[in-house]
Amino acid sequence: MPTVAAESGTRGRGYPQTLQRPVISSNKLRQQVWHNKSTPLFFASTRHCRQEIHIGGNNKSLNDCTNCRIAYPFLRHLPRVISSTQLDCLKIPNSEIASSHFVSFELTLHCRRNNSMTTSTDHSISRRAKQAAGQPISQLMGMALSNPNIISLAAGFVDNDSLPVTTTNLATQKVLAAGETSKAALQYGSNNGDEQLRTLVLEQAIAMNHAASDQAANYQTTLEQVFITPGSNQLLYLIADTLLDPGDIILCASPSYFVFIGAVKNIGGRTIGVATDNNGIIPRSLEEALEQIERDGNLSKVKAIYTVPYFDNPGGTTLTAERGQQILDIARRWSRDHKIYVISDEAYRMLRYEGPDVPSMHHWDPSLEHTIVAGTFSKSYSPGIRVGWGFLPTDLIGPLGDQKSNIDFGAPLLAQRIMATILEENLWLPHVEKLRGVYRQRCHAMLGALETHLGDVSGCHWHKTNGGLCVWLTLPEHIDTGMQGTFIKAAVEAGVLYVPGEFCYASGGEPANHSTIRLTFGVQSAERITQGIGLLSEQIKHWQ
Amino acid sequence: MPTVAAESGTRGRGYPQTLQRPVISSNKLRQQVWHNKSTPLFFASTRHCRQEIHIGGNNKSLNDCTNCRIAYPFLRHLPRVISSTQLDCLKIPNSEIASSHFVSFELTLHCRRNNSMTTSTDHSISRRAKQAAGQPISQLMGMALSNPNIISLAAGFVDNDSLPVTTTNLATQKVLAAGETSKAALQYGSNNGDEQLRTLVLEQAIAMNHAASDQAANYQTTLEQVFITPGSNQLLYLIADTLLDPGDIILCASPSYFVFIGAVKNIGGRTIGVATDNNGIIPRSLEEALEQIERDGNLSKVKAIYTVPYFDNPGGTTLTAERGQQILDIARRWSRDHKIYVISDEAYRMLRYEGPDVPSMHHWDPSLEHTIVAGTFSKSYSPGIRVGWGFLPTDLIGPLGDQKSNIDFGAPLLAQRIMATILEENLWLPHVEKLRGVYRQRCHAMLGALETHLGDVSGCHWHKTNGGLCVWLTLPEHIDTGMQGTFIKAAVEAGVLYVPGEFCYASGGEPANHSTIRLTFGVQSAERITQGIGLLSEQIKHWQ
Ligand SMILES: Cc1ncc(COP(=O)(O)O)c(C=O)c1O
Ligand SMILES: Cc1ncc(COP(=O)(O)O)c(C=O)c1O
After folding, report:
1. Element housing A20 (H / E)
2. Which residue has the higher pLDDT, A32 or A233?
3. Which regions of chain B are under pLDDT 70?
4. Ligand 2 centroid vs B368 CA: distance in angstroms?
5. What's the Cα-to-Cα distance from A523 to each of A519, B140, B187, B188, rounded to whole Å?
6. CATH classification for the domain delimited by A137-161+431-542, as one of 3.40.50.2000, 3.30.70.870, 3.60.15.10, 3.90.1150.10
7. What per-residue confidence (pLDDT) applies to A19?
8. Which parts of B386-504 fold into alpha helices (H)?
9. Ligand nearest to the CA of B316
10. From the CA of B139, how many Å to the nearest CA of chain A?
11. What is the DSSP string of A332-381?
12. Residue B132 to residue B264: CA distance in whole angstroms
């Protein structure tokens, strides 16, 4: 960080007297001028722009300059003070003005000149990198590490004990004992992935949908629409990067998978949360959210509806076949000037412990006009091999493929060959069966313990999930479960860790409920789960 | 693609008569108005922008609108015609105006209104996705596939025959036969990578630098500075994404690794090529490039200098120890307001067939103040396992880690455990020795054949590389080796494929030499290489 020296003489003169606070009303930027010498300036400046800034005076000059950078950092990273030798121009993009982040923000300018010329790294970092807040789970990891005996009901890991060492060994040996074919597995692969694996993954998905529905579908999806990625998270990132410009919107369940919310934010996009019930996103609420966005003049920014239709992370809810069709229908109807996609993130589909399977939205959109399917073997086989996939609308093959070719021009091939062999040798579904047994027991342990301890505590409720790895628990309103509250500290001291629900909320739309908790039953034994819920419940009752 | 219906009545009226062609002179945008009804419009529009466009008439109105999207697609994706129901506003960002792509582009407008209200997908795609031209190699792949007997001296693959099936099998079995540790290898890993692998990779690099130098260095690099990525290409992408805002600059050798050039372009950044000689980037030219950029008022945009210091792809050159220090020194001296990093992409370091090793820039910057090291096992072991790494300045750990946590929150762990075991069991360096033998022979075959056939053909010259996988060949000026020329078609018909040098040039700086060729000797046998160079040389002589 450079030392701040004397006040600027020439070009900077006058600025310390004309500090401003943008106030937003009816999507217009207004300015108020006030004086504050001591508060540091958060801005981005470019050297090449020779235009003087007249903030607070002449609105037009603010817009006229097309040279200057968008002042993102001051919106999102208040602690990162950027000093500069030149205050050139400040431009506030309309997309930001419309955003809720901006409404209550106070911008104060500090225009003293840095004469010491030390280098500031913050200047070197891109806006996107500044936006990337990282994934919140890392703070929690720290908490867990500092208390090794803690019962973590926070971890996103899968069960360690059932990880398929034997079948993986078998498949790997088969891959590596096949002469020339073995060598091919150690070579670079293609950008979209191994053809055999793509074939098997697509066939499997279609077969499952047919099995789950009494309606046949005429699948037109081709192999070109299938992409393999090192984890479905890369696919989700690529989709966000392919669809979103800064300020663009993805609608999602409230609450939603926080890594995806973070990735969208990183790209400069916005997530808008839609109300959910026991069957996930409520179509009527989705419709209302779109109506509101349209009234705000932002419909052109809506690019997709993100859903985790099977055993949502964190909500635990599953979309019924009917809801899936309704959501798809809404996406179709609201696609006026441009297409609105539906992302069907089916990460947990195989982890079903109760009840019948539901056909994917793919079944109602069998040539994938609107639907993007994301899938992964991380939960149903092994996250260490890390193979995910996407089924894409044909119009996204090119753009997403181009984006991918810049990141890795293809997923690691050995891992793909291992997974293809596991599928081909019929080692996958038996493993899934085994996993269901393991997780079903833990799921019951968690739901049972919640019932026992919190069943008649007023204000406590949770969704009785039939699959996946999460239970979403709501506590009485006066308990703030967040990182800034005291409840989480008490819970950690008592020996149990959870993910504060606040991490799982979109940047807009449905307001965050700070009395919520994401619990996972993937990692701990049934016994430890029961014990953990006991400890947590004690805290909750203390707080009553 | 929507059907184009009647001409717009109200807002669109008059537009077909005011079509324009931006012509660039001395970095300023001028406009010429002409009439062209039939040519489609390439533009991006947003619905919310209610301002009328006056292209060709009033320059100011073009800049005034801060609402509208940048019209990237027409610059890069000519075949992607975008129709829209509304032609709102067209804004041309300065970064584009300055870019050479723009100079000869003709923008023609087609302003008929689409009343049919069908959806247009291009509206849904982000600017970044539109910018992502994809990697050029795919066109070449197509050429190769359509002619299966072709001798491809274009492929970026490694030698298939020497791929280490036996040692990989051994290491994998060891990883998967270790009880609890085996299970850990199938679990999620951490964002920065496996600790043992990070330790081994860092130790190895430091040991190699010490062995290559008679000066000791006091390494302060910590394990926190080491990141593992699924291929070093992801690391390069993350670096570009972490450092670059649209319009920002990375200096690089002319020519340079085209995937990196493409990734920078995708992010909206610019690469500026610096003149090279037989020892890579010429420090004096680098200095001059920076002076020019400073004169243009763009120094604040320069974020890094990208080098492939060992057996550059495509140049084949290696930076001497002295040059490495000079480049580092230049980065230091020009870091005034902000830090300029040096990216040392050491992908080919291990593929040295002649002469002594050179210490990495890391050796002259042992706490990595400015230096970013990128490395990979793809070339020196197996690209199918796909493990790369980065050594980062401490100030980039946070921002790059945050970006990475959005893409995959950690590289696949099994592949990392396999590579760690290969290192630990001392299986790597013996394999490198073997590879050197294989590639040395091919390298000699290629250089020998070039000498035989083109040694006294005037205008032909190439760098006699001592390592890596590429030879960079320059032909007489009148031969255009590019995709649009007839030479490449003749070569393909004659049975040999190469990468046109034009793909390897930065977006600015040193002008592209369209009479250059990238040849690789990684994939073909010595015999086929000799034969291929023979066929290519025949063509060259035909064209004399
Ligand atoms: C809902 C959801 N989608 C996607 C993923 C990504 O999984 P992977 O990248 O391992 O395929 C996860 C992992 O936790 C998830 O919970
Ligand atoms: C110069 C250079 N850097 C980086 C890479 C990326 O290799 P990988 O992603 O396989 O580690 C390559 C591959 O061709 C390369 O040539």
Report:
1. strand A19-25
2. A233
3. 1-122, 133-139, 141-142, 145
4. 21
5. 11, 48, 11, 12
6. 3.90.1150.10
7. 29
8. 394-407, 413-424, 428-454, 487-494
9. 2
10. 13
11. HHH-SSB--EEEEE-TTTT-B-SS-----GGGGSTT-SSEEEEEESTTTT
12. 9
Ligand 1 atom nearest the C-alpha of A233 is 9
Number of H helices and E strands in chain B, helices first, is 17, 18
Query: Cβ–Cβ contacts within 10 Å for residue A161, how many?
Result: 10
Distance CA B308, CA B320 (A): 12
For the Cβ of B241 lying below 6 angstroms from any atom of ligand 2, the answer is no
**First and final C-alpha spacing in chain B:** 47
Nearest to B84 by CA among B136, B39, B120: B120
Tell me the Cα Rg of chain A.
Answer: 26
Length of chain A: 544
Q: Using one digit for the tens of pLDDT, what is the confidence trace for A98-127?
A: 332 222 222 323 222 222 333 445 678 888
How many other C-beta atoms can be found within 10 angstroms of the C-beta atom of residue A420?
A: 24
Q: Are B299 and A413 in contact (CB < 8 Å)?
A: no
Is the Cβ–Cβ distance between B155 and A190 less than 8 Å? Answer: no
Which class does domain B132-170+231-363+428-544 fall in?
Answer: alpha beta
Distance, CA of A475 to CA of B210 (rounded, Å): 59
Pairwise CA distance, residues B44 & B126, whole Å: 10
How long is chain B? 544
- Residue B9 CB burial class (10 angstroms; 0-12, 13-18, ≥19): exposed
Q: At B389, phi and psi to the nearest 5?
A: -150, 165
First to last CA, chain A: 47
Place of tokens 């990067």: A241
Q: What angle do CA B201, B385, A266 make, to 5 degrees?
A: 80
pLDDT confidence of residue B123: 73
Q: Which amino acid is at B423?
A: L
- With vertex at residue A261, the alpha carbon angle to CA A260 and CA A264, rounded to the nearest 5 degrees, is 85
Query: Helix A195-212 vs helix A413-424: angle between axes, to the nearest 10 degrees?
Result: 40
Q: Token pair for residue B8?
A: 């717009």
The secondary structure element, H or E, covering residue A415 is helix A413-424
Give the separation between CA B8 and CA B115, rounded to whole angstroms.
Answer: 9
CA pair distance A360, B119, nearest whole angstrom: 24
Q: How far is CA A193 from the centre of its chain?
A: 24
Which residue in the block uniquely carries the two structure tokens 């929690």? A140
Residue ranges covered by each domain of chain B: 15-126, 132-170+231-363+428-544
The predicted-structure confidence for A489-525, as pLDDT tens digits, reads as follows 999 999 999 999 999 999 999 999 999 999 999 999 9
By most ligand atoms within 8 Å of CB, the mutation choice from A259, A373, A503, A523 for ligand 1 is A259
* Interface list for A 340-359 with B (CB within 8 A): 340-341
